[in-house]
Design goal:
Structural class: alpha+beta
Shape: elongated
Strand content: 15-25%
Number of helices: 10
Order of helices and strands: HHEEEHHHEEEHEEEEHHHH
Strand order of the largest sheet: 6-5-4-7-8
Radius of gyration: 22 Å
Distance between the termini: 42 Å
Number of strands: 10
CATH architecture of one domain: 2-Layer Sandwich
Low-confidence stretches: 149-153
């Protein structure tokens, strides 16, 4: 990592002071993308010449012309980079998320641009942690979806099931599933926990039964009997994640379509898993510069 690319514990004042011009933003992206010196993205050669007037480089070997944003999620953007940085900072620092409407007002862009921009940031942090959870893991499921008039309180036809697993004091994994049957729950747990996980804590939903093995305990709390904590056994950590999710939807986004729910879960995962990371802004911008562009038509296709 380049010497000055840390940008730890950044706040809004520091953000404006450090990235007040396009040149400053480009310099920062170059530090992140090429910490060992500019290299041609096509052939990898480090013999390049700078084209000053166009903020580009030309490879001395293959003659490919490129910029720091070529082949990244910033490619062909019409927005100033400082607006990208401001939106990125706002999203990662907003515990309950931030709506496209708020971004539209704060950054001075159209709603379509704000919505597209937020989704490109979410896309960049997708699948950021291919890690197994271990030690003590809490697992729970929740239903996401709006109310529907004229049906009973228990109606779930317009709701989506989200499964979550969190290692205490560590990271969380969230996933949309089609059901909460035994096969689905067990596959999710086996996929996202290490074989030597110490313990898995759940509520008393019968489909969780049988998940224990010779070196992994399975203990439950009986929510149906109003039992929320039994010694060290509880699911309060993952339920706090559900609380964050629900407050984000109700308080910030107001409405989230099933098509895009996964993207909002990715954003929540990223913020939660980096809650103690002093280099969160740097690491998010690094994910942006490492991500290919997400086309608008791919976002809105078959959008319900």
């Amino acid at each position: 990592m380049a010497k000055n690319s840390g940008t730890a514990e950044i706040n809004l004042v520091k953000l404006v002071d450090k990235f007040h011009s396009e040149d400053k933003c480009r310099e920062y992206l170059e530090e992140l993308r090429w910490p060992n010196g500019v290299a041609c993205p096509r052939c990898g050669d480090m013999g390049v010449s700078r084209i000053q007037k166009r903020n580009q480089y030309e490879c001395n070997s293959c003659r490919y012309q490129f910029s720091v944003t070529s082949g990244t999620i910033f490619h062909d953007t019409h927005l100033p980079l400082w607006k990208w940085f401001l939106v990125t900072y706002t999203m990662i620092e907003s515990k309950k998320g931030v709506s496209a409407n708020q971004i539209m007002r704060e950054v001075g862009v159209s709603y379509k641009t704000a919505w597209y921009l937020c989704h490109r940031v979410r896309e960049s942090v997708r699948d950021a942690y291919p890690f197994p959870l271990r030690n003590i893991v809490e697992v729970d499921e929740t239903w996401v979806g709006g109310k529907r008039r004229g049906v009973g309180h228990g109606y779930k036809g317009n709701k989506t099931v989200v499964l979550g697993a969190v290692e205490r004091g560590e990271k969380v994994v969230l996933k949309i599933v089609h059901a909460r049957d035994r096969e689905t729950l067990h596959n999710f747990i086996k996929t996202h926990t290490a074989p030597d996980t110490e313990a898995i804590y759940t509520d008393d939903w019968p489909a969780y039964k049988g998940i224990a093995d010779y070196d992994t305990r399975h203990e439950t709390v009986n929510h149906s009997a109003e039992e929320w904590v039994n010694g060290d056994v509880h699911t309060n950590t993952i339920e706090n994640v559900w609380s964050l999710l629900k407050r984000s939807i109700v308080g910030s986004f107001h409405k989230v379509s099933k098509k895009h729910l996964d993207a909002y879960l990715d954003e929540l995962e990223w913020r939660f898993n980096n809650r103690d990371n002093p280099y969160l802004f740097r690491d998010t911008v690094l994910r942006l510069i490492q991500s290919s562009n997400l086309e608008y038509r791919a976002l809105v296709s078959d959008c319900g």
